[in-house]
Amino acid sequence: MARSGAPRHKRAWTVAAVIVGFLALYLAFFYFFGGWSLNAPVDLTLCNGDEPQSLDPSIVTGQLEGRIVLGLFEGLTTRDASGKIIPGMAESWDITPDGLTYTFHLRPGTKWSDGRPLTANDFVISWERTLNPATASEYAYQLYYLVNAEAYNNGKLKDFSQVGVKAPDDHTVVVTLAHPTAYFLELTAFQTLVPLPIDTINKYGKDWIKPGKMISNGPYVLKEWRLNDYILVEANPYYYRPVPVHRIKVLPTNHPMAVFNLFYSRKTDLVLDTRSIPSTLVADIKDKPYFHGATIGATSFVRYNVKHKPFDDVRVRKALTMALDKQDIVTKITRCGETVANTLVPPGTPGYVSPKGLGYDVEAARKLLADAGYPNGQGFPDVNLLYAARGTAPAVATELQALWRRDLGITSIHLRQQEWKVYLNTQELMDYDLDLSAWIGDYNDPQTFIDMFVTDGGNNQTGWGNPQYDQLLATSEQTADIGKRFGIMRDMEKILCEDEVPIVPLYFWVGMSLYYPDKVGGFEPNFVDDHRWGEFYIPGKP
What we know:
Layout: H1 8-34, E1 44-49, H2 63-72, E2 77-79, E3 85-87, E4 90-95, E5 101-106, H3 120-131, H4 149-153, E6 165-169, E7 172-176, H5 184-187, H6 198-204, E8 220-226, E9 230-235, E10 247-252, H7 256-264, E11 270-271, H8 279-285, E12 291-304, H9 314-322, H10 326-334, E13 339-340, H11 362-371, E14 383-388, H12 393-408, E15 413-418, H13 420-429, E16 434-440, H14 447-450, H15 467-477, H16 482-499, E17 503-514
Parallel strand pairs: 1-10, 1-11, 14-15, 14-16
Antiparallel strand pairs: 2-3, 4-5, 5-7, 6-7, 8-9, 9-10, 12-16, 12-17, 13-17
Helix pairs in contact: 9-11, 10-12, 15-16
């Protein structure tokens, strides 16, 4: 007996057509509204290091996150390929003769990536968010140069209108500083001072940084972010100038050999993260046309948690500091011409000379350790050495452990490796005893290293503080004479690296990158290792 209705094969085709149609609409929705590229071709693929911790400019502190943020957002100023400060959202500015008032004039017609006007007040409310104690921005101190900014961030001042930033009209930002700051224009190019889409943040909360929600003002917009897979950015149609590279794919990976294989097999065009290049290959590839190395303003060091025993004893801190043959590290592990560091500030700032620091002295180290109650390492408690699972950090951590065992007899230092995002959180919580760290200068001035260790500073994360150190910083900031100012900071660095030693400087960096010059242009070495994606271009391509 025949069944009523359409034949079975026709019903099946009808169902299939409905499913296909639904899927097509679903894919189209994500393509136009969610940012899915449907494997659209990219113009440039780069390796950036690990999966980013966040893309919130008020929150991020790491270099790899900063690179992405500064592709998506732009401050009042920006940098060219050589690292020089150039106009950004502000086309010009005026500075009063006393160096205290900066008046920035925004470019006509500046817009957010959704086409809405970007106004001077966007900077005001964005800086308020960063300084607001509720945001808990570790980098809020980059705004302390403004009148009353520190007091607002500390909660001592509740009225933000008393902080030194105003928007008298839609096109003008007026900044009043507490004291002259020669590098303030460099700060306005930094990630912490970019404008933020506050309405979007209020609407979506922490999800505002996701594709389809994020509104930005820089050369690129966020199209996709697939965790531990890739990030895709595309040229912002409302940016004030066209960018040479339309679509960039960013690959996150913390395995240097995998990164090199991606580059060598031409699956990525640019490796711009120094720690993503395998140090074991440097000797073999440093003369290749695709290898590029240059001195940058960066230092690797170890943090002591001075709140944890036995590192609350300065004798122990000095002993471990003086028992390190750092030449072993740069010779055996990093291998790219890095130099041993006994102080924190890297060479490169004209006129500034660091103090001597504590060098390698095994006998003095052993005596200090014995005086502290641990002769030949006996009775030294179990402690952990925290480090991130990226670049040469695992090898350096292993070498530190071996050197302390060899020269001090300490066998109770245990290695604790974590993925980048977890590591940053652990470091922020100070849930460690020893912490293998690094710092890359935010601008070319010793203060970008020195001011990190003020008492309770957002990026201090050692538990250490010294009233004399804090007062010297305050004095240096009020000192106009650059020679006297550098002398004061030299005294601060002596306290930090010779007298109190809450840190162990290890070595000064050499920045490395991989790319073929005929494939990537607009990438130039500079002291702050800052490479703006809007400056990149593909040689020979219009």
